[in-house]
Design brief:
With about 325 residues, this protein is α/β, with parallel strands linked by helices. Helices cover about 45% and strands about 15% of the residues. It contains 12 helices and 12 strands. The chain has a 6-stranded parallel sheet with strand order 2-1-3-4-5-11, with helices on both faces. It has a 6-stranded mixed sheet with strand order 7-6-8-9-10-12, sandwiched between helices. Helix 11 (about 250-260) links the parallel strand 8 (about 240-245) and strand 9. Helix 10 (about 225-235) crosses helix 11 (about 250-260). The model is unreliable at about 50-55 (pLDDT under 50).
């Protein structure tokens, strides 16, 4: 079924059918609905190359990532990408995953845009001072940041209230009687990590508690880093009675390291982890206490809608969405003995 056959079936001109399928406003809604329904029923599929020529776009969005940042090892990232791809597909856009040797490689963005491969990009793992953001703003390339930067008023971004997440974790532990609370963190040049640490320290101050710098352990961005953080904390003359971990993969390592050390989670020591611990993380059915965000899939859907806004209505931006976290209490926190 090509467009000429579809037009003949409907008794309309090829031009009218084409304009209806491409959403032109000079075709009335009744006709557009009739054409779309017939296209669906008869199995019409537009020619992708011709469609791109007509629209003057590639109909592709890219995420540029570095395998070294652990994105592909994180189920939350994959679920987010799935939601992003699903929503973009509904608008006839493809999602491209581009690998850079260094996530901050600016040449990659030039190759994508100047080579006509993408219409916009999504920037993950934003830094406090992010040269990618500055570069894309300077070049005028359309983008959506997955996270904020230290100064973020002038561009579109999707993020979570990271400070509030850490405050929820500390307030929960303080309510259980904990006063000696350690913190395992990601590299602090990442903006989310700095925000979460800031929320952690503010919540301690709010509770009138001092923080021992020796209880700051990191970077702990994966299982190995989490185990190393546990070893460092357990070797201290005075051990903390609780730990907050600012990411889920590091959290798996912290929980596993404490269990391997013979400690009973929720009794001997309490742990709160930012992010969802995957069910296949070899923690023997343990239900951790977690600071969680809206589902990764729904996050991807929301980001797709935002990046489409960036493309279709740039003058109405920047588009910015901050979502709030929740605390889910599990088996890894308990009253201080």
């Amino acid at each position: 079924m090509n467009i000429k056959a579809l037009a003949k079936e409907l008794g309309l001109s090829t031009s009218t059918v084409s304009r209806a399928l491409n959403g032109y406003q000079d075709v009335n809604q009744q006709t557009r609905s009739r054409v779309e329904e017939a296209a669906k029923t008869l199995g019409y599929r537009p020619n992708a190359g011709a469609r791109r020529l007509v629209r003057g776009s590639t109909e592709a969005i890219a995420i540029v990532y570095s395998a070294g940042v652990e994105n592909l090892g994180n189920p939350q990232f994959l679920d987010m990408a799935g939601g992003l791809a699903e929503r973009l597909h509904a608008e006839h856009f493809d999602l491209m995953l581009a690998v850079a040797s260094d996530e901050q490689d600016l040449d990659m963005y030039d190759r994508l845009f100047r080579g006509g491969r993408v219409d916009a990009v999504v920037l993950p793992n934003t830094r406090v001072n992010d040269k990618r953001v500055n570069y894309l703003l300077e070049k005028g390339y359309p983008f959506l940041a997955y996270g904020r930067t230290g100064e973020c008023s002038g561009f579109s971004w999707f993020d979570f209230d990271n400070e509030e997440g850490s405050k929820l974790a500390v307030r929960h532990l303080v309510a259980l009687g904990h006063t000696d609370i350690a913190y395992a963190h990601s590299p602090l040049e990442l903006n989310f990590a700095l925000q979460r640490q800031r929320g952690f320290l503010l919540a301690l101050q709010e509770a009138g508690l001092a923080f021992d710098p020796a209880w700051l352990a990191g970077p702990a961005v994966d299982r190995r880093g989490g185990r190393a953080a546990v070893q460092a904390l357990m070797a201290l003359p005075k051990r903390p009675t609780a730990i907050v971990v600012d990411n889920n993969l590091g959290g798996i390592g912290v929980l596993r390291g404490l269990m391997d050390a013979g400690l009973v989670l929720g009794r001997d020591i309490s742990v709160v982890v930012h992010g969802v611990i995957p069910s296949d993380s070899f923690l023997a059915g343990l239900s951790p206490t977690m600071v969680i965000q809206p589902t990764a899939h729904s996050t991807g859907v929301a980001m797709a809608e935002m990046v489409l806004q960036v493309l279709h209505a740039p003058g109405a931006g920047p588009y910015q969405l901050l979502r709030q976290p929740d605390l889910v209490v599990g088996q890894t926190t308990g009253a201080r003995i």
